[in-house]
Design goal:
479 residues, alpha/beta, Rossmann fold, pyruvate-formate lyase- activating enzyme, OB fold (Dihydrolipoamide Acetyltransferase, E2P), 3 domains, five-stranded mixed barrel, 19 helices, 38% helix, binds 5'-deoxyadenosine, binds iron/sulfur cluster
Length: 479
């Protein structure tokens, strides 16, 4: 059997793309290996959102030069956003790379690998750039790659990502995504529903809908318009699916119908990822985010008011072009008041080809970016810990995902050791997406369990499974 080594960096969209590529190569007889030396084919699924991610891939490629010399039959491929962005430049910088394939051309990977091995010629498969044709031809060159896959390809057999849209049309000035992932295109609802039904039939319990701006989803069918709220309502009816989530939301498209759907559909996770990016109107304007801080606050207040117990998370960019100390302090203010469950904080990284790179100098010194990053993170951690402490003594419903990270580090092989009576540390998530760690049994993986929380830090809740007896007591106490 030919062996495939694949390394993935970046967002959930990339994780899904890798899963699907692996699935399509399994069909060709490939099996996975964790050893680059053993592999017949090595693929890197890459990210272009920040420079650092690209640098890491180029140095990983550099380390493969000798491997290729030793075994010219080895096929080395670069897929994903950096492949679309750098194209031939990758062959210039690393001539031993055989394949460069953008995220809109993934269905071609099996064929590209076959060609590369046979002919020893560079194989380039990329989509059209945003100015290289009419909207229609550009859209067609970015194909959504969503073949059906088998359960072994998913993060766990009972959780799956389902893509509902590709691309982005928002053109925030710092962001490379609209140019590498192409125009915003929503998948037809019937395809999404069919995929979800198939997943449910295979035992999948949780579906995470993916889109760059997932709540901008819109499909017109005759005189009916499908929005994300309609899709959630339709998916909610599928038997076997217990939880629905969606990422990432765009603040301006957080409409009332969507908030009402999250509130009213019991299977919908009470969790929203809605990045604000900055707490300063001037910075938001330079970023071309399309909303003011007041508008974001209003949206957030609506979410908190309408959806009891909802957890909201955000992304931030610190040190964006021209960000003053006062502007940064406004970002501290919005974090202080918004009570995000957690925030993903990034130092601005200039991306050639974006409006930001063209219009504004990247003028905040690295040390200042670093300091602001740390300050914001420390504040967010304080808030996360405080809010997690509010869960002490409370009972939550946890969908059990698998062994905890520390359990995995201990190297337990629960396939062999599992069975009645064997305990190990498990991890799962609450309906509001909080991570819960507790002692359990491998056969509880995939179940939804009542857990009482007894400890908490900024990132994790620690709990114990409620036994029926204790459960009754807690119940009668009204906890
Ligand atoms: N520099 C730093 N962070 C960025 N992001 C997007 N582009 C950049 C950039 N050029 C961040 C945003 C986005 C997240 C996925 O990555 O916060 O929400
Ligand atoms: Fe990038 Fe903005 Fe689109 Fe998000 S909404 S992918 S930050 S351009």
């Amino acid at each position: 059997m030919p062996k495939l080594y694949i390394e993935t960096v970046g967002c959930q969209m990339n994780l899904l793309d890798s899963e699907l590529v692996v699935a399509s190569l399994r069909k060709e007889g490939y099996e996975l290996t964790s050893s680059k030396a053993e592999a017949d084919t090595i693929l890197f699924n890459t990210c272009s959102v920040r420079q650092h991610a690209e640098d890491k891939i180029y140095s990983a490629l550099g380390r493969l030069k000798d491997a290729k010399k030793k075994n010219p039959e080895k096929v080395i491929g670069v897929m994903g956003c950096m492949a679309q962005k750098d194209q031939k430049l990758i062959f210039d910088r690393a001539p031993f790379v055989d394949i460069v394939v953008g995220p809109g051309q993934l269905q071609r990977i099996p064929e590209l690998i076959r060609n590369a091995r046979g002919k020893n010629e560079h194989q380039l498969a990329v989509s059209l750039g945003r100015k290289e044709g009419t909207r229609d031809t550009i859209e067609r060159s970015h194909e959504s790659f969503d073949p059906l896959r088998d359960p072994t390809m998913r993060p766990t057999p009972f959780q799956a990502y389902v893509r509902i849209m590709i691309g982005c049309d928002k053109f925030c000035t710092y962001c490379i995504v609209p140019s590498v992932r192409g125009p915003e295109q929503s998948r037809p609802p019937a395809h999404i529903i069919a995929e979800a039904k198939q997943l449910a039939a295979e035992g999948c319990k949780e579906i995470n809908l993916l889109g760059q701006t997932v709540n901008s989803y819109k499909v017109r069918e005759g005189d009916r318009t499908w929005r994300l709220s309609d899709l959630l309502t339709a998916l909610h009816d599928i038997e076997g699916i217990d939880r629905l989530k969606f990422v990432t939301s765009y603040p301006k498209d957080m409409t009332d119908d969507l908030l009402a759907a999250v509130r009213d559909l019991p299977k919908c996770a009470k969790y929203l990822h809605v990045p604000v990016q900055s707490g300063s109107d001037a910075v938001l304007k330079r970023m071309k985010r399309g909303y003011t801080v007041a508008e974001y606050r209003e949206m957030l207040a609506r979410a908190y008011e309408w959806i009891p117990g909802v957890a909201v998370t955000s992304d931030f960019i610190v040190g964006f072009c021209g960000e003053t100390e006062e502007e940064f302090q406004l970002t501290m203010d919005i974090v202080r008041e918004s009570r995000f469950k957690n925030s993903f904080i990034f130092k601005y990284s200039e991306r050639p080809g974006t409006k930001g790179a063209e219009l504004y100098p990247d003028d905040v010194p690295e040390e200042v970016k670093k300091r602001r990053n740390n300050e914001l993170l420390a504040l967010q951690n304080e808030i996360s810990e405080e809010d997690n402490h509010a869960f002490l003594e409370r009972r939550v419903e946890v969908l059990v995902e698998g062994p905890s990270k520390s359990e995995e580090r201990r190297g337990h092989d629960h396939d062999h050791e599992g069975g009645e009576g064997h305990t190990l540390q498990l991890t799962g998530r609450t309906m509001c997406d909080r991570i819960v760690v507790f002692d359990g049994n491998p056969r509880q993986i995939g179940q939804t369990l009542p857990i009482t929380i007894y400890d908490a830090n900024a990132h994790t809740l620690f709990g114990a499974v409620v036994t029926e007896h204790v459960g009754m007591e807690l119940f009668s106490l009204g906890v």
